[in-house]
Specification:
Largest sheet: 3 strands, mixed
Strand order of the largest sheet: 2-1-3
Shape: globular
Distance between the termini: 30 Å
Order of helices and strands: HHEHHEHEH
Number of helices: 6
Number of strands: 3
Structural class: alpha+beta
Strand content: 5-15%
Radius of gyration: 16 Å
Helix content: 25-40%
Length: 167
């Protein structure tokens, strides 16, 4: 086996088992992204209830929970939220996750939510995406901040990230 083939094999084996294939985004670049919402994070919502409800739904549906923590002031947060609103992405996410959007303001609101998953210091960026099992076990500890640079990612990369933690 050549080194490159062996490396490709090892990388394939290291990826999450049985992840769903990433959906094909209908847009080629983020410049083509339609703006559906400018305020995905409800500043007046009860974040604890939103998160609790997402976990309760996950226990019933057998899906994982996807918590999108961000703020309406954040361009990367708006890109991710509007990307997830694309029909093909929205249906993919709905098949695999129970979603809750949690407003963290300007890193000064609802910080007890990421703290539940071990993120007790200042957040490195937003959007912070937490994927967890219905029992609360964190699935994506090493790259919860991967979408904090969503404005520089490609639609395919965003779709691949959303697919990475599916079963």
């Amino acid at each position: 086996m050549k080194k490159t083939a062996a490396l490709a094999f090892l990388l394939a084996m290291a990826s999450p088992l049985a992840a769903a294939p990433a959906p094909l985004p209908s847009i080629r670049t983020l410049a083509d992204l339609p703006i559906v919402t400018r305020a995905p994070y409800d500043q007046n919502a009860n974040a604890d209830a939103q998160v609790r409800d997402a976990f309760e739904r996950a226990k019933k549906s057998g899906k994982r929970v996807l918590l999108d923590l961000g703020g309406n002031w954040c361009p990367d947060c708006l890109v991710l939220a509007n990307f997830m609103a694309l029909p093909e992405i929205r249906s993919f996410v709905a098949r695999h996750y129970e979603v809750a959007y949690v407003d963290v303001g300007r890193f000064d609101r609802n910080l007890h939510i990421p703290a539940r998953f071990g993120f007790k210091s200042r957040l490195q960026g937003v959007p912070m995406v937490i994927v967890a099992e219905a029992d609360g076990r964190l699935v994506n500890r090493d790259d919860v901040f991967a979408t904090a640079s969503a404005t520089t990612m490609t639609p395919k990369a965003l779709a691949a990230y959303l697919a990475k933690y599916t079963r």
